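To: structure desk
From: M.T.
Subject: fold request, one chain
Message: Could you run this one when you get a chance? Sequence is below, nothing fancy, just the single chain.
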Amino acid sequence: MEVDSRRQSSPTLNDDDDALKGDETHASPVFPTIPPRFSTLAIWFYGFSSAMLSTFFLVFYVLIGALIKSLPTIAWDVWSWCQFKDPGRFRPFYEEEMERKHLDTGKLVCDIGYYASRVGLECDEVKTETEDGFILTMQHIVDRRPGATPSKSIRALIIWLTVDKYPVLLLHGLLQASGTFCVNDDSSLAFYLCKSGYDVWMGNNRAYFKPEHKTLKPSDPKFWAWNLQEMASLDLPAMVSFVCQKTHHEKVSPVRTPLI
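Reply: Done. Structure tokens follow.
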């Protein structure tokens, strides 16, 4: 009762509240403070000053800072050139790079089988299907050279023992493909593991070079209605299950590169 009587006796308080509510610059717990309206001259002034400060920061701090940080490298390069020496001679794997410098690097093709044949291996391309109907393309690196260890080697001790190669599933990062593991000849991870006695499989996420779906076409917007969550929850289990089924192993060792 006292509060109502006080409000009725003080009409100016209500008027002040209404004025504050109508004022756009008044801060409220729900909406942030809105700056007052500026004149055209003030807007041009603030825009010009912010552009000048941004340019000054870019030139002085970024470019000049990068130049100062590069001075030791530039001095070392100039000193090495004056001595007719390679500035990168102390770089890791420098000798190996020089040995491979004159090797035939071959042509750049979108065919893992081509790179596998360069090191005496073969590549079998297989496909598997996800729960939402996407067709995933996978590659199986196989060593069929004479004397190579097959996928199942039988050794006689007292009884016949069947020893399987352990399966390894190589998974590429974001915006990549399985060819990431196959472009460095014998130093490629896929070929190195295969020659070391592992059963190497390589997976590709949906939307490979030739995206496929059981019912949808790439022109259908539903074909692209997915994100990283589907790649992790649907693509990965489908590839792991396929490798386990083909190799008759309960487990497989996944090797994934960083996402980016």
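Reply (cont.): The longest strand covers residues 134-142. Let me know if you need anything else for the meeting.
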